[in-house]
């Protein structure tokens, strides 16, 4: 003989509310649950009152969600703000390359030691085909950049307005996705290039200070890191 609890479990659900999802887009994203790049579907939902499992009456719309194709977990659309692993790697390579160019533009490219340090840094970041000649050519082209001496932006004074703008455009989107140690590492890579031929010049220090600011490092931390790098034997 079934208990009352068992009898209740067997009773059919006569009515309820069910969400009907419609796919309105797809792509690739970094899934927080899976911990890696996955495909996703962007979904919009409509609530329906159901009777015996049949949707009948509209009960409003739900907030849009992002559904992972692998684990089927739903996330808020803000999950798409996190770059995929592939995109993050590209952002990091671009950041190191841009910082390298800015430091070279500020300190000059006449020292082969500096160029060697710059090439090693860029290659370590993943741009394996980088050469001294390529960096030298790009910096020489940027040296013709107009607008220096305006006094409106210290970074533009140091490396030219184009690179100063690009520093912020490249580093600012990356900073929220890098741990503090990662942001410090990008700054220190630029510092080691600047120090390859001796102490910082004023323009190099200004550029590195701008890099620290764009990476959302506190000013005191930037100054501390630059001073520590200068004391470390190369």
TrEMBL record:
InterPro entries: DjlA_N (IPR007791), TerB-like (IPR029024). It comes from the Bacteria. Pfam families: TerB. Signal peptide: none annotated. SUPFAM superfamilies: TerB-like. Residues 95-225 form the Co-chaperone DjlA N-terminal domain. This is TerB family tellurite resistance protein.
């Amino acid at each position: 003989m079934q208990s009352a609890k068992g009898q209740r479990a067997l009773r059919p659900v006569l009515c309820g509310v069910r969400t009907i999802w419609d796919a309105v887009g797809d792509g690739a994203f970094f899934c927080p649950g899976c911990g890696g790049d996955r495909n996703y579907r962007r979904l919009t939902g409509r609530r329906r009152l159901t009777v015996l499992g049949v949707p009948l009456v509209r009960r409003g719309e739900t907030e849009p969600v992002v559904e992972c194709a692998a684990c089927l977990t739903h996330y808020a659309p803000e999950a798409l703000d996190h770059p995929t692993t592939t995109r993050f790697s590209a952002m990091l390579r671009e950041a190191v390359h841009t910082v390298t160019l800015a430091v070279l533009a500020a300190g000059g490219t006449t020292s082969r030691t500096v160029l060697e340090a710059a090439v090693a840094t860029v290659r370590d970041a993943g741009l394996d085909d980088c050469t001294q000649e390529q960096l030298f050519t790009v910096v020489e082209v940027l040296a013709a950049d107009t607008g220096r001496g305006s006094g409106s932006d210290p970074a533009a004074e140091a490396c030219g307005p184009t690179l100063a703008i690009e520093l912020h455009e490249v580093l600012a989107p990356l900073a929220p996705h890098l741990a503090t140690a990662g942001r410090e590492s990008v700054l220190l890579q630029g510092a080691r290039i600047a120090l390859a031929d001796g102490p910082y010049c004023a323009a190099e220090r200004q550029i590195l200070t701008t890099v620290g600011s764009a990476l959302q490092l506190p000013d005191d931390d930037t100054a501390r890191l630059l001073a520590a790098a200068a004391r470390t034997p190369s």
